[in-house]
Amino acid sequence: MTSTSLEKSKPSLASYFARFRELALIAFIVLLVALISLRNPNFLTFTNFKDILLDISILVMVALAQGMIIITRGIDLSVASMLGLIAMMTGFVIKAYPETPPILAMLLGMALGAVLGSINGLIITIGRVPPIIATLGTLSIYRGLVFLYSNGTWINAYEMSPAFKQVAKGTPLALPNLVIVALLVAALVYMFVNYTQPGRDIYALGTNPDAAKISGIRTMRTTFMVYVISGLMCGLAGVMWASRFEAAQTNTALGFELQTVAAAVIGGVSMMGGIGTVPGILLGALLLGVIQNGLTLSGISPFWQLAVQGFLILLAVVADSTIQQRIKRTMLRGVVK
Fold first, then answer.
1. How far, in whole angstroms, is CA 69 from its chain's centroid?
2. Among 127, 181, 216, 238, who pairs with 83 as Cys (CB 3.0-4.6 Å)?
3. Which residues, in sequence order, are bridge partners of residue 155?
4. What are the backbone dihedrals phi and psi of residue 180, each rounded to the nearest 5 degrees, phi first?
5. What sign does the CA torsion over 289, 81, 130, 305 have?
6. pTM above 0.85?
7. What are the residues whose beta carbons fall under 8 Å from the beta carbon of 91, sequence distance 6 or more?
8. Are 280 and 22 in contact, with CB atoms under 8 Å apart?
9. Which range among 74-78, 149-153, 268-272 has the greatest average pLDDT?
10. Can you give the pLDDT at residue 9?
11. How would you classify residue 276: left for phi > 0, otherwise alpha for psi between -120 and 50, otherwise beta?
12. Contact 150/222 with Cβ under 8 angstroms?
């Protein structure tokens, strides 16, 4: 096998295992739904399924951004703090200016998110700080800014305009706006990573950073880009969070970063970089939503939800490592032949 054919075999093998993993996730979700439905018939209803979609919509938006970052061999631990800060800042704007158009609030949140994401990107690319350290630091900084900006106060439902409350919960197309926005974001991300050069550069950077740099890809620009995208997503998610829950609190989205990593990794995004799909991340988020909803309906303590998430992350990482080793063995056998 020539070196050229070897390079061509890598994405095909990775794609094969990605499809297998997605099919396995679908089968597991169907089995889980069937088991929960046997225990609680109220689970398998349109209303409850709509609630599950509503619950995971914000997770989907942020997990898609987290997935792109992990594909580049990075991680963003500050997503929950960015979301919380933007939810609080947007809440104060709506409180002070109730006539603010909802679309303007969304654009404002995304602009603020882009600024916060740019700070992460600059620290990582210009400052040469490892992503896990950089975003661990900004996690604390951004969360501290929530307290500093709000002075410890909360924004409550009666302080928000009716129009803003309907941004997430309005149902013009039978589904809540939040679900529709999440689906649109997923479609845009799918088109971006599959049909644009910057999107393909994300995979190239994660597969082999040195080879990507030699081939002419601006690795620093690509790295900076994914963190800005993460900020944009968190900005939009922060506005939607404040609208959906009709509140902005100092502990908004606390610990949410674990769920975004879980959704991405369970959905097949490799912690080693270079592998991951939008459908996989959607399925990972859906699985978490089904588990959370099923445990809640079954009256099981919410603390078990964290335990289940941790177990699924470990299981996904072990599966990913096994898949990577199998790909390497398959490639080595091809080289020997």
1. 9
2. 238
3. 248
4. -65, -45
5. negative
6. yes
7. 155, 159, 160, 242, 247, 248
8. yes
9. 74-78
10. 39
11. left
12. no
